[in-house]
Amino acid sequence: MKKIILLLFIFSGLNLSFSQEPIIEGDIMLCPNSSGTASVINQSYDSYQWYFKYWFTSEEFEPIPGATDASFTYDWFTYDQALLKVVVTLGTETLESNAIQIDSYAWTPLIIIHEMNEFVRIDPVSHHLVLCEGESFNNTIGSPYNTNIQWYKDYAPIPGANDTSYSITEPGIYYVEAAPDFCPNVIDSSIGTPFVVEIDTNCALGITNPNSLHDAVQIYPNPVSHSLQLNIGADVAINKYSIMDITGKALITKKTNFTDTATIDVSSLSNGLYILVLESERGNSIHKFIKA
To answer: Which of 9, 138, 161, 216 has a CA that sits 20 to 30 A from residue 98's CA?
Structure first.
């Protein structure tokens, strides 16, 4: 009798072990244009049906047509922000797994930050960068682009130009390609918005100084939320100002008659880095500021 009870106990324990709920694991972070796979990892069952729902809705889980294997492969677009689970059968039992949430990497568009100095300016008409002959200025791509980097000049790759920053000394049409290290095969390019560099041979001779008023005008606060304040030196009258983004695109251009002090409303701008160009009969004053 004791042997029979012992055997029943053993068989009962085996039945419980065979009937445990399925456990699923899978790729939960996907790069654009990629796929992931989730699988039952603990044991085999008689049948499988995968379900999904988007986590931010109150809808019920829906069965996924054709997803009836122990593994399910899903694409980054359809199942971004989805919850996945599987319902299985084992004999007469129906069991449900844990749920996993699928997400896709997202990041800011590729931008180039031009590090302005006294030898480079933005032409307010053409929006081209104008550089004094024999000088240089640095250009840096924004985060998170840190791998598979290639800078281009006149639509040809620049040999060895594979860092996040590149110093330009020559005229030409420039753009860059790069990817983040967490999705190294997803390469973005600024070829659609290249920037043009022109050489100003006069400024090296002292005929023109593209930023001659820089020390005569102070701007604050920086970063700024709403109003940018200007302190303008004596005998200086600002007759025009332009606010450009870091690609050189003019966002705001106004004629003015600023003297002594002035205020510029920047509340309509999105948060980010901008370039302020102040123009007067005595020259230009170029300043970078952050809208926060």
So the answer is: 9
